[in-house]
Specification:
The protein has 2 domains: 2-339, TIM Barrel (Alpha-Beta Barrel); 355-425, Immunoglobulin-like (Sandwich). The longest helix is centred in the middle third of the chain and has 21 residues, at 147-167. The chain has 9 helices and 21 strands. By secondary structure, it is α/β, with parallel strands linked by helices.
Length: 427
């Protein structure tokens, strides 16, 4: 039975490469709320952010979509899953302090997380404990002594076991710790420094993707003993290889993590985080070097190559969609370019359809070759919002809506296939 469960787990969750994105459940003026139906199709794992403890508790988790009716949200989750994507609920975040201070609190945590998963049909959950949610006062990586950490480990196992028992398939589990809680264990082991290491070590057979946040970070040691600064190729390579090679702490050795389970976590654009953003070129240089397909981009010299690296993670899908921070969908495009994969949910097309004139004028006729009459096309603005639709006519043209203002728009088909980005000028 254990062997069959392991095989099922591989089939369900060991796909790749993956583009993991956090979808935030609030409206930020600079990174607006998106419907799940508006998520760029290149994202393969969507972490819904966040489930938070109910007011007055640190363990009773709650979640509700803020700007979408629950029934619509549930349908949108199912639609993403029908496209082969995984949708998880992320617990914690920067403002959600989670403590399990008794066995009763542990059990309530388990029950409440399972309730959220079952209500919305999530494929599992993401661990995003930050701030005061996790700290160590003693013990080792292999043998923690902090009761909160031990209870949290037990709780995750219980949630995963119950999910598999209920659904007949393994739950997907990811984790996105900050650097201090992981690689920070090389400089100290106590408090927040290395505090995630006992959790990760205990859950290494459960976790599908480890995606350390390589942003909002101070300078960190690499396994070569040198110190590296965020927002550089050296930082990406050194901190990722620390996971892939393992490292020594005063709490013991943190064993290597398989590359198939490691994704590189970065901000989608400069405003998405306080620091750590790199251009697509720098990201490509770092990933190519790690995978053994490109030259050394900085001073850090890697130990080995990792062609099966799992992929990329970003905060956030919402920030990636806007065109006022970096180019719209820049991170998703970087993933596609670096890993040379298409995440289209339809059969691939040999060529993008010819579209003209470009730029186009709102209210005028646009010609698109190769699409059948009656196809409904959506126009998505730089904020990720579907702002207009038009229908293909028998002669292969459509009338651009008069309501479109100056800007760059994504055109998507009724099946959510990305067709092109074109500039449109207001009439």
């Amino acid at each position: 039975m254990a062997i069959m469960a392991f095989i099922a787990s591989l089939a369900a969750n060991a796909q790749g490469p993956d583009l993991v994105g956090y979808w935030h459940n609030w409206n930020d003026g600079s990174a607006p709320y998106l419907e799940l139906s508006q998520v760029d199709p290149r994202y393969t794992v969507v972490c819904v952010s966040f489930a938070l403890p109910a007011q007055g508790t640190s363990h009773n988790m709650e979640f509700a979509p803020q700007e979408t009716a629950p029934a619509t949200f549930i349908a949108n989750v199912a639609a993403l899953q029908a496209q082969g994507k995984k949708v998880l609920i992320s617990i914690g975040g920067a403002t959600g302090t989670i403590h399990l201070d008794s066995d009763a609190e542990r059990d309530q945590f388990v029950s409440s997380v399972l309730g959220i998963i079952d209500t919305y049909g999530f494929d599992g959950f993401d661990i995003d404990l930050e701030g005061a949610s996790v700290a160590i006062t003693g013990g080792t990586i292999a043998a923690p002594t902090d009761a909160r950490i031990i209870r949290f480990i037990d709780a995750v196992h219980a949630i995963a076991d119950q999910f598999e028992s209920t659904h007949g398939t393994p739950m997907m589990l990811t984790a996105a710790p900050e650097t201090a809680y992981v690689q920070g264990g090389m400089s100290a082991y106590g408090g927040i420094w290395g505090a995630y290491l006992p959790i990760l070590d205990a859950l290494r057979d459960r976790l599908d993707i480890l995606q350390v946040q390589l942003y909002n970070s101070g300078s960190m040691y690499g396994i070569d003993g040198d110190i590296y600064t965020q927002a550089t190729a050296d930082f990406i390579v050194s901190q990722t290889e620390a996971l892939l090679q393992g490292f020594t702490t005063s709490g013991g050795f943190f064993a290597p993590w398989p590359p198939e389970k490691v994704a590189i976590g970065l901000p989608a654009c400069p405003s998405a985080a306080g620091g750590g953003y790199v251009t697509p070129l720098v990201l490509e240089q770092a990933v190519d070097y790690l995978r053994g397909t490109g030259p050394q981009p900085g001073s850090y010299q890697r130990v080995a190559t990792y062609p099966t690296l799992r992929g990329l993670m970003t905060w956030s899908i919402n920030w990636d969609a806007v065109g006022s921070c970096a180019a719209a969908d820049e991170f998703a495009q970087a993933f596609e370019d670096i890993f040379e994969v298409s995440t289209s949910v339809e059969e691939p097309i040999a060529e993008k359809p010819a579209i003209w004139p470009v730029p186009a004028i709102a209210g005028d006729v646009l010609r698109i070759d190769g699409l059948p009459a009656g196809s409904i096309l959506s126009f998505v603005d730089a904020g990720g919002r579907c702002v207009a639709e038009s229908t293909m006519r028998d002669d292969g043209t459509l009338l651009l809506p008069h309501s479109l203002v100056h800007g760059l728009y994504m055109i998507r088909s009724s099946a959510n296939r990305f067709l092109a980005r074109i500039p449109i000028i207001a009439h």
